[in-house]
Fold these 2 entries.
Entry 1:
Amino acid sequence: MSIDFIGVWIAALLTLFIFSFLYKDNPFYKFAEYLYVGISAGYFAAYYYHNVMVPNLFVPLQNHQFDYLIPLVLGITILFRLFPKYSWVSRYGFAYSVAMGAGINFIVYLQANAMQQINATILPLISLEGGFNLGQTISNIIIVIGVSAGLVYFYFSKPHKGFLGSTARLGIWFLMISFGASFGYTVMARISILIGRMQFLINDWIKPTIALISGS
Amino acid sequence: MKQRLPLLITLIVGLTLIVQFFSPGLSFIQERFTNWFLVVIVFAFLLGFLSLVKVNITKIKRRSEDWGYSIPLLIALFTMAIIGIGWGIGEGTIFNWLFMNLMVPMSATMFSLLAFFVASAAYRAFRARNLEAAMLLIAATIVMLGRVPISSAGFLSYLKLDAIANWIMTYPNTVGQRAIMIGAALGVVATSLRIILGIERAYMGEE
């Protein structure tokens, strides 16, 4: 039995341990669950060491770029969160992280998610590309009216009554279709992963094991 | 010192990032800040790592409920970390073998498990109690049917479910997603400003 086949057996048993949760919470599932947490934490520790710490801290410091002592000090302050008496020291590191997130997100979200999406919504209500195009015209109208109505639904500064209420209701309809489509898409993605696991169990584990036992 | 310095760090870093966006000559600042940020984030991960170790060691010491499962967790955690840091993480390493045979299958199975739970959630969500729920039901059903081969078999092929599913994903779905994206983006921008200006201070913790 090769090392790869031992790996297949371990993977198959762990797969079955996790699927056993479908019956009810049990020791096999709990073992796999805790093991998964441990493996994941250990994986990311090694991953960050090789892909972040070495190129972004150790190499610059070896090359005498001493400004990289700043993130080292800020990072160490974060670890003070483990000591309740000195946890206030961690604010420096967190302040830097939060500021980076806020500064980058301010621009990225404003540019990519707000401006570009608004820009993409400003469409001709009558499409005349290569002559009158009815299908594209209907689609454009749906996009312009739908996005506007959806945004009206998220406007909570005035009560949703009268015209505002009707528009908000139209917005809800579009949002519901969108949620339904996203739900259907997610279900299909999960089913696809499930089929992948079943194929693994049958093709990579059961069939080769039977072949090994029968000697063929 | 305890309050003002963190707020000052937030203000300077946040404003610098915004200003550099409008001054292409200063883009090196963002590059350097981002490299530093990656290092700081690893320490945030290390905080979580050490916290996980601390919690599980305490659990074992106190013989708390399910303490026995903390032992494989700690063994897996240190084995993976030590092997990965000490012997590398590339192809053909023990780390990669453990990743392929333990983490990948467990990760995929955990996600596939959700297929069963979304099915039960669907049962509750898809009861067409009102017009909105009916729209959700119809959109989800068409998208699901349109993505499987059965939609192009027999009489179902006349319904062109795959084309309708594609149209729903391209237009009505885009409309909903876009409205949410614009609304969320404005929220993120407002929250970012509040953080940079020191109005939002939740990250500072209790004092």
Entry 2:
Amino acid sequence: MFFTYLRRELRNRRKQTVVVAIGLAVAIALVIVVNAISTGVKDAQSEVLESVYGVGTDITVTQPAEGPGEGGGPGRFDFGAEDGEASEDGTRNLAQDRLSTAMGSTSFDATALETVAGLDHVSGVAATLDLQNMSFTGEMPDPSEGPVTMEMGPDGSGEGSSGGSSFEIDQFTVTGVDPDAAAVGPLTTAEVADGRTLEAGDKNVAVLDATYAAQQELAVGDEITVGGKDLEIVGTVSSTTGDGVATASDAYLPLATAQSLADLADQVTDVYVQVDSADNVDAVAAAIESELPDASVSTQSDLAEGVTGSLSTASNLIGTLGTWLSVIVLAAAFGLAILFTVSGVNRRTRELGTLKAIGWSKGRVVGQVAGESVVQGLIGGAVGLALGALAVWAVNLAGITLSGASGGGFTMGGPSGQAPPDGATVQGDAAPGGGAFGDRSDALAGAAGNAVDIVLQAPVSLWIVLAAVGLAVLGGLLAGVVGGQRAARLRPAEALRSLA
Amino acid sequence: MYQIDDLTKTYRQGKRVVRALKNVSLTIGDGELVAVQGPTGGGKSTLLQMLGGLDRPTSGTVKLDGADLAGMNDTQLTAARADTIGFVFQTFNLIPTLTALENVETALVPSKIARQTRTARAVAALESVGLRDRGDHLPGELSGGQQQRVAIARALVKNPKVLLADEPTGNLDEETRDEIVDLMVGLWKDQGLTIVLVTHDSVVAARTPRRLRIAKGTVKDLTAA
């Protein structure tokens, strides 16, 4: 009788049932979509972070540049009059390599590594030395024949006023890593593409990013000049994040080799920290800050905030607008369900009073009214689930591409965040009398930040499905409780009133 | 059947206190058919509420087969209504979304008997009011007289001790009214049912052996010798 009566009632007031169910369905669908996209965006953010900081890194420790002049970066090339070999016409062939810390970062003493390793809840640490290598090769006219002036235009292009010069500036990023600490750090998201990765005891060898190697037409067995020294390339690595995504650096050297080439003995630029449990991340970060007052300590969530580009826009949009929209629509749907249930009870005063008069208990009458609302909620939940799944499916099918960049503390010029990750090289192929420095800012942004295009994949978890159905039932239950209370207060004598 | 002593019922209507029944004492024996007449607002419906356990008196006792309805809690009253008292209303009060048969079955829902038995008894009850072939009709598809027959079947299906009817012919034309009165008188004669019939129709009242008149909260037995 319960189900027969319930079914007939819902069918009889079909319009109300449909309106309430649709209201709940839209709210549920919205909750599912917002949650799925938000999860998708978070996944994308952590992918961006992983491509830069490696898997399993909870905290990174760096030291900010103390002033504009203090940071590293591609400094000047200084050539004396006697440098290079003068050819017969007086032009000199010049080549110089400069290896220094990457722009915006400062090296600090490697003892920080032991300090951090000694803290509670730290399960893994690794230090890296992020460097930038700039090499200059070319020929310059005899400086004694006249001053060489270079005028830089507003777009960064340069032009030599004195004829006869031809040069090339090559720039790439170099990271010194400790092969022993392979569990943490940038190389954890890299997989060997060719040859091998760095091993303990390696010295004066290099592993290249596969993308960079292909671009430079370098292969395993070739040599690469870093800081003026030729190193054997023992392997190439590619990112596990996706095809065509560059790894964090163009070249990887054993930490000791990098330190000696850059003349930065016992210095590092980044410490990667793994914490035993996510609950302890904040505590460990605070401990590091107090142990190393000069250091800049970033947790994964700090780093997530540093992700720029459309990914960050999407994250903000979902985070605020999506959540509030869900809450408002959910509240409206609940309100609608309650309103219709209460008005339904009011309309059925005599009917429900009659049932009480012929011996239906209060509980049975309340249960009947509440049951109708809960079933409405279930219908709404089911429709909402289908609607939400459809919407999420559409979002995934649409293949929305989010681009995110996570810089090492700065981004520079150009359409940052969209700079291709392979744009890490400046090539000024200067004809005599002209030096082109175009695309410089783009290239620097690409070198410093790490832009990754990620197709948004919005997952629907079992948990959110259960939560959504739970919300729908809750909406129905809430309406049922309010309507049922009203029904419970009804006096059976209402049945005797001849006018309803 | 009923033993009523010194029954008073007062209502509060805003600031006004209405004394619907004043110190009523009354006995209704087993198997009696009693008509209750009187002007509107005289206390007819209030008396019926007291007899049916729909409301509690302000003072006095209403004993149904020795059990005082005035002293019962909600659960006990609900049980009494479910088991011993059958109601018939002026406006029939059938559930519009349920068929005639299902409406009759609703009266058996509180007794928690097996579904098959419930349906069989409902079919028998419908047959006893001459509507066996209308079981699958919705109330809206039945005439007023047919609806009241279904309502009577609903009241009788649980074999109550007493049938309380509140203006059962009030919404019916004369011909149908006579049919319903015939039916009720027949049930009274055949089954020895105790029936209390509230009506302002003297034609209906004339069919009953005992007539009470309620006016201004007091009862007068018109048939008392």
